[in-house]
Amino acid sequence: MIDPSPTPNGPDAGQEPPAVTVVRKPRRVPGDRGPAPRLALAWATFFGAGYFPVAPGTAGTAAAVPLWWALSLSPRWIYVAATVAITVTGMAAAERAGRYYGVADSGHIVIDEVAGYLVTMSFLPRTVFAAVAGFFLFRFCDVVKPWPARVFDRAPRWKNGPGVVLDDIFAGAWALLFTWAAVLAKERFFGP
After folding, report:
1. What is the pLDDT of residues 56-89, one digit of tens each?
2. 112 vs 91: CA distance, rounded Å
3. Which of 58, 68, 142, 157 would suit a FRET pair with 175, their CA atoms being 20 to 30 Å apart?
4. Does 18 sit behind a cis peptide bond, omega within 30 degrees of 0 on the bond before it?
């Protein structure tokens, strides 16, 4: 019996197609870097959310939802001040944690997701719909990295604490626009 499938010709003849590889953020480079900066690690991992074994960035964002829920009860100036404080202290903690892990943007560092989600949820109504839409739209923007988030994520000069956090701040700004659009569309077509 003759095999009816076409036979490949050329240099790739007889080779299997390349397997799909999954790219993961490195979490830690082996080696001793001295004592652990415990306070910086606790804050950079948002009290351990970054150690979640699967999708730690998503776990960090989920851990930020109750913080947003609590902060959304406060006056706007307190919300903004808390977001700025989390962003600035997150940059310092991400810098220290990145040096300790040996990877500037370790998968364990999720304080950037917390700051980015708080930016996403800035001035949005305190509703379950807004929280869920903001969560998914922030995760989407954090993965896609629209400009200028991509600059802070990929440029070698930003492979440090500020770069780690700033890419999520800008992803959060885009997600804020998309979430507002989703909230307004929901109110227009489905009511409050």
Report:
1. 999 999 999 999 999 999 999 999 999 999 999 9
2. 8
3. 157
4. no
pLDDT of 10 reads 52
Which tens digits make up the pLDDT trace of 1-16? 454 555 555 555 556 6
**Average confidence score pLDDT of the chain:** 84
Place of tokens 């810098």: 95
Encoded tokens for 99: 């040096």
Cα–Cα distance for residue pair 163/157, rounded to 1 Å: 8
How much is the pTM?
0.81
Cα torsion angle, 96, 151, 144, 18, sign: negative
Instruction: Give Cα separations from 154 to 29, 50, 148, 159, 176 (angstroms).
Output: 19, 21, 10, 8, 22
Helix extents (H) in the chain: 38-44, 56-71, 76-101, 111-120, 128-144, 149-154, 161-190
Model confidence pLDDT, tens digit, residues 126-151: 999 999 999 999 999 988 888 887 77
Give CA–CA dist 97/118, Å, rounded.
21
Structure-token pair, residue 26: 């490195």
Distances (CA, A) of 12 to 5, 6, 9, 19, 20: 16, 14, 7, 14, 17
Omega cis (within 30) before 30: no
